[in-house]
Amino acid sequence: MSPELSWLDLALAGALVLVAAAIARWQRIGLARGFLWGGVRAAVQLVAVGYVLTYVFATSRWYLVLAVLLLMLAAATKTVTDRQRGNRGTIALIAGSSMLLGAGLTLAYVNEIVLRVSPWYAPRFLIPLFGMIVGNAMNGAALAAERLESEMDSRRAEVEAYLALGATPAQASAEPVRRALTAALIPAVNGLMIVGLVSLPGMMTGQILAGASPLTAVRYQIVVAFMLAGAVAVTSVAVVLWYRRSFFNDREQLVARVPV
Amino acid sequence: MSGDARSTPLFSLRDVSQERGGRAVLQQVSLEIPGAQIVALIGPSGAGKSSLIRLLDRLDDPTDGEVLFRGEPITAQPVRALRRRVGFVFQSPTMFPGSVADNLRASSRLGDAARVPKDAELRDILDWVELDESYLPRAAQGLSGGEQQRVSIARALVSGPEVLLLDEPTSALDPEVAERFMRTIARLSGEHGLSIVMVTHRLAEARAWSQTTVMLEGGRVVESGATAALFAGAREERTREFVRSAQ
């Protein structure tokens, strides 16, 4: 088993952040304060989460578990929304619902059919699994929305030329949609290709550090890798197909450059 | 269709106003645009020429007022059906990826039409825009500006439109290429009976090729009438001044 970490051990690890801050200061890149503040935040956030999870694990109530999952989804939605230029309400609705669909379906499948967790709301499974799924779905959603915005902007003339020929909005925006989806899914494909070779995933590393056999850890990691691919694909396609609609009005005309 | 088909204007605008970004680009424009000829829209930059021509293909809708197409509200038919009857050629041609033949076929696969034209049909359409069949396999994006503009017309012709709207089609072409291009447009109008409405900033072009000229300024129609009469002596001082300034 791995050694218990004391607060002193954590303080010693904190020296590494000080090194990063010192480098930032030395090279005058203006990130020194960011490192220090970020280091404090990371520690405080994780400790707080640790207490919350301890409570949720100990009480093991389905509604508390669902509340934690929804909170994670809300945080992911806000992160995606903050990165886009378009109307915040529209993007929040689209990204939130798409992640709920993609991440929710994937979690339900893995939880009920692959792992057959009992009880179904067992927090030690549901919460970390959903964390990984939503994190990846979030990146997919953000990439998909961002790329669709820029493609619809740079290909505006092409899209309008299609419309003028009598194309449906779906036909006119087929190329921007294809490109946005490709951009969103390439990281998922790469993730499958390099897993275990270039990177040992965090969850597997954690399990091994905590004393699990690498072979057990690997099986879980395979499930996770497949699950992430599925979640990213479902989320991204939902975002792209739904967000595309907001670039057109009901008269099949292009609306303002970035939907507002 | 209401009234005698020959006397019904191609397009009628009734008190049409258009706002873009809070700015009025067209102000209560009432205008009749005749068919079966070339109609030129002229006027200084910002006059509203492009805004007006976009309404005729419903690429935009007016904020106020009504547009009629052959006597019926332009909104009476599905927007895609209208766009297949009314072709639009933009100022700078946008070629789709692939060959010229791909570009022409792309247009036939759009909307609800799933008709793939035969090569012979494509050759005929290319002939209309005076390109020979050797163009069919060529990469569309590698063509010159003038050739691309011809391909964009051919692409619009695939759906068999009655009207061709041209938004400054020669502005990116050098004068000699522009002249040849306009000859083709005149032939489309004269020999094939297509109605043409074009925006142009080249007054000589309007004068040489159009039968009717509409002068716009500040989002309003200054005057419209037979091209020969308008250039020989316009009713409005502003038109006379504008026409003189370009000579």
Sequence-ordered SSE layout with sheet pairings:
The complex is a heterodimer of chains A (260) and B (247).
Chain A lengths: L6 H20 L5 H28 L2 H21 L5 H27 L8 H32 L1 H9 L4 H4 L1 H21 L7 H8 L4 H32 L15
Helix pairs in contact in A: 1-2, 3-4, 3-5, 4-5, 4-10, 5-8, 5-10, 8-10, 9-10
Chain B lengths: L10 E10 L2 E11 L4 E5 L6 H8 L7 E6 L2 E2 L5 H7 E4 L10 H9 L10 H10 L16 H13 L5 E5 L7 H16 L4 E5 L3 H7 L2 E6 L2 E7 H6 L4 H9 L2
Parallel strand pairs in B: 3-8, 3-9, 6-7, 7-8
Antiparallel strand pairs in B: 1-2, 1-4, 4-5, 9-10
Helix pairs in contact in B: 3-5
List the defining traits of the structure above.
heterodimer, A: 260 residues, mainly alpha, globular, B: alpha/beta, 4-stranded antiparallel sheet, 9 helices
pLDDT averaged residue by residue of chain B? 92
Low-confidence stretches of chain B: none
Radius of gyration of chain B: 18 Å
Lateral strand order in the biggest sheet of chain B: 6-7-8-3-9-10
Question: What is the CA-based Rg of chain A, rounded?
Answer: 22 Å
Helix content of chain B: 25-40%
Q: How far apart are the first and last residues' alpha carbons of chain A, in Å?
A: 55 Å
The structure class of chain A reads mainly alpha
Main beta sheet of chain B: 6 strands, mixed
As residue ranges, the low-confidence spans of chain A are none
Overall description:
The complex is a heterodimer of chains A (260) and B (247). Chain A is mostly helical and 260 residues long. In chain A, 78% of the residues lie in helices and 0% in strands. Chain A is built from 10 helices and no strands. The longest helix of chain A is centred in the middle third of the chain and has 32 residues, at 123-154. The radius of gyration of chain A is 22 Å and the shape is globular. The N and C termini of chain A lie far apart (55 Å). The model of chain A has no long low-confidence stretch (mean pLDDT 91). Chain B is α/β, with parallel strands linked by helices and 247 residues long. Chain B has helices spanning 49-56, 79-85, 100-108, 119-128, 145-157, 175-190, 203-209, 227-232, 237-245; strands at 11-20, 23-33, 38-42, 64-69, 72-73, 86-89, 163-167, 195-199, 212-217, 220-226. In chain B, the strands form 2 sheets. In chain B, strands 6-7-8-3-9-10 form a 6-stranded mixed sheet, with helices on both faces. Chain B has a 4-stranded antiparallel sheet with strand order 2-1-4-5, with helices on one face. In chain B, strand 7 (163-167), helix 6 (175-190) and strand 8 form a beta-alpha-beta unit. In chain B, helix 3 packs parallel to helix 5 (145-157). The N and C termini of chain B lie far apart (42 Å). The model of chain B has no long low-confidence stretch (mean pLDDT 92).
